[in-house]
Amino acid sequence: MNVRMGLIRKKADWTFEDFNAYWKGKHGALAAHAPHLREYWQNLVVDRVQRGIDFARGPWDFDGFSQLWFDDLGRSKSAFSNGDLATALVEDENHFLGGLHIVTAEQSVVIPLPDENERARLLKRMSIIKRQPTLSEEDFRREWRVHGDLVRKMPGVSAYRQNVVVAREREKGRACDYDSLPIDGIVELWFRDAQTLQDAFASSAGQTTMAHAKTFLGDITAFLVAERRIV
């Protein structure tokens, strides 16, 4: 399945609490009616520290990440391109969001997630990654697969997904090129807690993994998030 991801910023005059409540309640209930939607999760940003890694931080700053799963790219596009729901969603987004970018990704599960009860107890980190400018998209994908094998060897990683970006909208509804939204992938990592995260990257396997990251990534922008399922 394809995952459609919204990279969102709240309006500057909205408090964190008001934004969180509105996104979860009013907007979540509205987006949940998207046709052909298989699953919908919200990821609220709660921390912006580059925990566990010694790597240049990218320029991105978001308040949340939405994730909506569809069977294919066509259904993902059509769900938000026409009809009363699409119009209502845009009006609602204009009400409480100060910024919204959309990426569509092909998702690979490298380390499977536990059941939802166990998942709810885990700490989640999401990272936006950009390839080195000398690397082609094909080379990036190859190296990221190698990187996944290295992450598997790190102690304390409860789950890991890779999301390779295949389509971009700097403004919702308008496809853009790579230079307009230079994001190659979004990482999802789960750990038991913050100390486990630190220990994983401090381990010998973690240092090997990050040494490899520096051979193909230009920057990483990491966030800790609180995730919740809407659909």
What does this protein look like?
The structure is a single chain. This protein is α+β, with helices and mostly antiparallel strands. It has one domain: Alpha-Beta Plaits (2-Layer Sandwich). The protein has 7 helices and 8 strands, in the order βαββααβαβαββααβ. The protein has helices spanning 16-31, 73-78, 83-96, 116-119, 137-152, 194-202, 204-216; strands at residues 2-10, 39-47, 64-70, 97-111, 123-131, 157-169, 185-191, 217-229. It has an 8-stranded antiparallel barrel with strand order 1-3-2-8-5-7-6-4, surrounded by 5 helices. Helix 1 (16-31) packs antiparallel against helix 3, helix 5 runs antiparallel to helix 7 and helix 6 (194-202) packs across helix 7 (204-216). The longest helix is centred in the first third of the chain and has 16 residues, at 16-31. It is globular. The relative contact order is 0.24. The model has no long low-confidence stretch (mean pLDDT 96).
